[in-house]
Write a structure and sequence with these properties.
alpha/beta; 2 domains; two-stranded antiparallel ribbon; 14 helices; 47% helix; globular
Amino acid sequence: MIISHKYKFIYLHCRKTGGSSVKVSLARYLGQQDLMLGAVADCRAVGIMPPNRMLYEALQSPSFSASKLLLKGKLWKFVSVSNKKKYAKLLGERPEHARAIDVIRSFPKEWNEYTKFCIVRSPWEVMASEYFWRRRSQKHQESFEQFILSYAPLEKSEMQIRKELNWNIYSINGNPVVDHIVRYEALQEDLRLILCDIGLDWDGWLPSAKSKSRPANVANYRDMYNQQTFEKVREIHRSEIEYFDFKP
């Protein structure tokens, strides 16, 4: 998530929609007091500094130890984790993917005055991307079919699963509440128009943040599905699929 006071916008980061790449790109323009949660390590990997606010707030943490973090080269990982822990109190346990309902409660003035946008992507694509992202750190790797049929984000209850869907990041009571919704397949074009309207002359650059988790030999996510897994995704993401008329 980003709350930019400099450009007066709020970006809600839906999972597996290119959000880390967008954050890294936009970090170059953000004001030093802007709030950006997540993608800190991705920024530093390409030599971009996140807003000073994120570093300053992390250094105020009682668990900060300059000698340990600087010598071990773990400063930016600490900044990312520390930021998320701090804002979890306001925005839920995954503040980098904060839901609109929590942002409204915690930042009502900004929500009412700033331009709000998010990026959406076909849930069938999202689930394929999520599978490869989780698989990168699994010792005993499950098949895609096993992943889909047993899907439970963060291994939570059914109620929590529904709460953590992308749909619930940008909608409340079944209705989207952001000003603009960017389609993943038209990301650069749509995002440029939104940013232009708020006075940000974006150059369109998007790094490949987190893209290395997908094997190069997987050309088409559709080939990963069978009828059972296809229907399971439709069931889980029904609200979003029906609202946007997403096709597999």
